[in-house]
Every structure is written in structure tokens, then in C-alpha cells.
């Protein structure tokens, strides 16, 4: 149960700005499936457009980081933030981009280890080593 | 200022279990530098050994995820958890493993976008789409 | 499914301290509805009384921040902390205090943007500008 | 100490895309001061432009939420996320937009109370009341 | 719904490494019940073994902190991290180790108060008193 | 650098409500030292009184959880929330209440392990076992 209305296709079709974004999502992803996140954002069409625009620029466009690595980073942030929906959607996306079960298992190990050492470092309040400083 | 003592090399050398781990860190990394995290963990030699053992198995050993991607995932978790020391140390490690400025910039974009959409999804309490479910 | 018992009205009525708080919640809110949070806290009557006392002083009493803004701030904290129940209850409260759909949409934009820039600032470890310092 | 270079004005002036954003920040805020956040983002000019564009649309443009409330919400998210820099910069912004000491004090009370009840709700795993459900 | 397969007993029995860990969990806990966490970790047998090994060393072995206190600390971390499953499993474990309802109520008070003062300290950005510094 | 003024003793002495709380802190703790947290809260005397009142009831009064365990739980929450000041002040308090170095080391192990398994459970989205359900 969401705190906002999730737009149906019929509602989206009746609103040109929302329809334009949904159409672009479908065309970009070559799939008819528009997931619930976008159906919730549709309540604020300008916001929907802005978030989709960013996602397209950052996650879809060609870049110096490969698509699977991007999804792994997204999963990592979502786990640390405890965003259940995001973990589900980006794990599905990572699998669609070729993540094997072995890679998934290793990704979990890294996330778990980072969670552990983050807690240890914070509990000990370790000061940053001079060697890690960025030189102007 | 830490909440625990940070062991000097002289103190580590005088304690065989701690010395063995510090020696292995140096040999594994081919560097004389032992960063403060390990100097704090040294207060509990069994714990020091366990954490280093895990880190070596997960981050150093050959695996299906390349070393730079591992560091990017580590940075992502550390940012979402707000671990300042960890962000510094793993950003330095990622650079040492070849992360370019362009890749660093893109990594930041992904982390920022994930932070944003995590907050939006949580605020809207979006239900998980049936399509994202794992089949037994 | 909770980790504590949720008190029914019958159970609350049989316990004078709990009954007194439930009665005050109903009188203050001019509604018969007592939500599950209070039914869980009832297991520790002194704690129930303390938390309700604070909430009344901070959220209900007249103050220099208007009631709708208070709810928006509450939602913002709850989202960043990932408290699903709290997001639901305070979104409902904000709507009861007049939050329009347009305001809800803008609130979400602000929360999402703050989530994004929080992650970026943390990832870059930006030092605080001297201009932001409070003068004694 | 940041993990990225903080651009000086001279460096920004030498890069047209960065200069254009810095100029717009100064014109919009009617102040010569460009804070460190933007100097860090300047390393990725497209990202700098995107984030500033969003901030202008969400935080600066006229809307249904008043400017001071927006800053209070921003502070609330930043506190829950533990973003020290963001707390400093948005507290300064809130004061510049008229937040009184009394309002600041009350804002802190609300944020603290929300932090407390978020933890209590999560610890008790309170189920969402049917009354809080959004009707389609 | 998990993002990984949860191993049945039949599947575990067919895989010697997984079976060995499940057998040890059962023997150590003197119970036939193996909870879902281990059934998810089973997808990566080396990881399963490593995590169980740590848990046994830290949570099961004799030590200077009593078993109930250990569970209370575990609950506290899990609440602050918003890990619903972990709150359920460790609250059950604490009860099995003798936590009374009164103790549970007090534990919740402490966790709630810590959540509140953590938020207040962070919002005010209180500097650490010199008296709290660890002496070399 | 705080976002609020930290009250000196002279300022506190000149304000009866603040003085009363500072006097009680000193009498209760049998020490002249009043740490910065209270000096920041003094800006809102009613809030100062409320928070100190709670802390006294929860952390100081006799109860079913011993004083050292309370501090360990407080540290655990503060680490997971990344509250640096709180970690320093409650680690100092735990030591003052008798926490040995061995206990401190074990506390860190538990917090680190909880951080790790919290991340793993969240990443795998493990469903709660029926056995963990509270019976009404």
C-alpha cells in the first residue's frame, strides 16, 4: 500500500506529459512493462520527467562504467539505505544485464563486509590516515 | 581521536598474533603502509585476524567481480552508511586500482541518484511489482 | 506482526494508567481512533505516558511552527530513517491538516533532492565553508 | 579534506560550462559566495549543471511550500542521514530565510521526537493501521 | 519474497558443505529449526560457512559479555539499521535467553532515547568534549 | 563547530531554568562536569528539562537492566546511526561504569557482526520465519 496513487495505463494515456514519459520508458527499455515507481511519480508530472531524465542520462547512456557495475552500485546503496523496493528492482535489473548467481553471491559478500567494517570504523572513530588525503 | 588505542609498529612487533597479521597485510599489499583501521582492531587480536581474513578472501582473492568494481561497491555502501574514514580509504583504493576521474564522477552520479530514488520510493511506499519476484 | 502485544480497548480499560493516556489521546484528537503505536507502547505504561506527553507538548501545543510544517518535518525524518509505519501515519496526519496533493508532490521532491545531495556531499567529503559557522 | 578537488574561481572561470553555473548561482542568490558543494561538483560539469538545475526548480522557484519550510524539511532529512555539511549549510540557509531561534529550537524538538518514535516503531515492528491506507 | 532462493532441507542435504553447516547450527542450538537467513546464505556455501563461523565465535562462545546482553546489543543495532527480519529473530533469541517483558520494555526505552539524542546531537553538531578523549 | 550556541556556566547561572537542570546533572552525576550536549540544549530550556528528565528516568534510575548494559546498548544505537559525539560520550560512560578493554573489544565484534548480517538480510530480503511471530 502506497501513500500516493499508482497511475494505471488508462490514466497515464489521458495525461500527455505522463504519457510522453511512459512512452519513452517503454521505447528505451524495449519492453511494455512500466514499474510501480514511475506510476507513483506520475502524480507530479514535472518530477516524473526530471527523475526519468536523470536516470536515462546516468544509468542508460553510454559511459565509462559498464551497465552491470552500475546496477551493482545501485543495489549497494539501496541495501545500506534499507530500500526494499529498490533492492528488488535493481537486483532484477542486474540479472537482466547478466549478473550470474556467483556474482550475486560475491556482491552480497562485499556489501556485508562493508557493512561490518563501516560499523567497526565508526565504533572505533578511526582517524583518516594522511596517506588518503587528496592532493589539491 | 579514536575510542581505542591505535597500535604503533613497535607495539605490534611485540605481539606475535598482531605482528603476523600486519606482516600479511604488508606482504599481500606489497606496501609497508598499514592503515589506522588495522591499528585499532589490533586491540583484539582474534578479531583483527578474523576481519583481515575475510577482507582477504572477499576483496583480494580472484573472483567473478573485478577489483575496481569491488571498490566501487564498497564506496557506495560506505557513503550510504556515512562512514567518512571508509569513503577515504576505499576511494584511495579505487584510484590505486585505476579508477579515472571520469569514472569517479560517474560513480558519484549513480550514488546520488540511488540516494534520491531510495528516498522517493520510501516516501511513496511503492509496492514491489510482481515482475520482480524471484521464482523459487 | 509486531514484537510486542498490541493492547485492545478492553485490555486498556482494565489498566488505569493506560486508560488515562488512551482517554487523553481521544480527547486531544477529538476522535475515537487510537492507532497501533500507542497500543504497542501500552506494554510499558510509564513509557507510554512519557512519549504521549512529549508528543502533545511538541506536536499538539501552539508553537512558532505551524502544524502542517511539523508533520512535513516528521515525514522527512521518517523517510530518511526508513520507518514505514511512521511515513504512513504522518502522511495521513499531514493530509488531515490540509496538505494538498501539490504540496505532497513538492514535499517528495525536496526529500528526494536532499537524499541525493546528502549522498553527494558525503561521497565527496566536502569541508564546511567558514561562512556557515555559528558565531558564539 | 575532500575526496575530490574543490575548484577555485580561477579554475571555474577557465571552464565555460562550470563558469555558466557559478554565474547563475551568484545571480540567483544575489551573492558572490559559491559554497564548497558546487566547487566539488565542478569536477563533472554535466552533473554540476543537473544538480543545480534541480535545486533551482525545487528549492528556489515559487511553489506551494514556503521557502523556510523547505529548508526545515531539508535539515530534517540531512540530520537523519547524518550529513554534517548539509546540516550546516541548510541551517545557515534557514536562518537567512528568517528562522528564529525559537523556531530552530522547536525544529530540533520535532526532529528528536521523530528520531525517537521512528526507533520505537521499528523496534516494536508496529503494523500499519487500516485507517492510514490510501484509497485508490 | 527474497531476492535469492531459500534452500529446503532436501537441497541442503544434497550439498555436503551446506549440510555440514546446517548440521552444526542444529547441534549448536540443540534444535531442528534452521531459520531462513541461513537458507538464503546457502546459495554461497563458502559465505555461509564464514558467517556461521563468526556468529558462533562471537555470539555463542563463552565471553566477557553475557548472552542476553549480546542479544540486546544486536537488537539495538538492527533497530537503528531498520532490519525487520533481524529485529524479529534477535528479539525471539533474547526472549529465549530469558529477557522478561519488563526488560524488553526498558530496552525499547533506551533504544528510543538513543535515537532521539543521536538526532539532537547531530542536528546541533555538538563538538566532542576534551574529557571524552582516549589517552594514548 | 555547532549550529547552536553552547552555553557557558556564567550564562547558565543567569537563567534559573537552565541552572536548575545543570545543578541536577552535577548532583546526580556527583561531578562538576557538564558536557556540551546539555550546553547546546540549553538554548531551549523546556526541551533541556524534558530530555534530562527522560535520561534520568531511563539511564540513571534503578531498573531491570544493569547500568553497563544500558551504555552498551546506547553505544550500539549510536554507532549504527553514525553519531560520533554520542559514541565518544557513551564509550566514556561505559568505561566509567566498568567496561573492560576485553568487553569493549567484544562489544565491537557484536556491533560489527550485526552490521554485516543486517546488510546481508536486507540484500537478500529474507522473509520472517513463522517461528519468530509473537503470540497475541
From TrEMBL, chains A, B, C, D, E, F:
Positions of the Carboxymuconolactone decarboxylase-like domain: 48-126
Signal peptide: none
Keyword Oxidoreductase recorded: yes
The keyword Oxidoreductase is assigned to this record: yes
Sorted UniProt keywords: Oxidoreductase, Peroxidase
Gene3D superfamilies: AhpD-like (1.20.1290.10)
Highest taxon, organism lineage: Bacteria
GO molecular function: peroxiredoxin activity
NCBIfam families in alphabetical order: ahpD_dom (TIGR00778)
Protein name: Alkylhydroperoxidase
Native organism: Metarhizobium album
Organismal lineage: Bacteria, Pseudomonadati, Pseudomonadota, Alphaproteobacteria, Hyphomicrobiales
Amino acid at each position: 500500500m502506497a501513500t500516493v496513487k499508482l497511475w494505471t495505463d488508462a490514466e497515464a494515456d489521458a495525461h500527455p506529459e505522463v504519457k510522453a514519459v511512459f512512452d519513452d520508458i517503454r521505447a528505451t527499455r524495449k519492453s511494455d512493462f512500466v514499474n510501480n515507481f514511475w506510476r507513483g511519480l506520475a502524480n507530479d508530472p514535472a518530477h516524473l520527467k526530471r527523475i526519468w531524465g536523470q536516470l536515462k542520462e546516468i544509468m542508460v547512456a553510454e559511459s565509462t562504467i559498464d551497465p552491470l557495475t552500475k546496477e551493482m552500485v545501485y543495489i549497494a546503496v539501496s541495501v545500506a539505505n534499507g530500500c526494499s523496493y529498490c533492492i528488488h528492482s535493481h537486483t532484477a535489473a542486474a540479472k537482466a544485464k547478466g549478473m550470474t548467481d556467483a556474482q550475486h553471491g560475491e556482491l552480497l559478500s562485499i556489501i556485508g563486509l562493508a557493512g561490518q567494517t563501516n560499523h567497526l570504523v565508526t565504533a572505533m572513530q578511526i582517524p583518516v590516515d594522511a596517506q588518503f588525503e587528496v592532493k589539491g
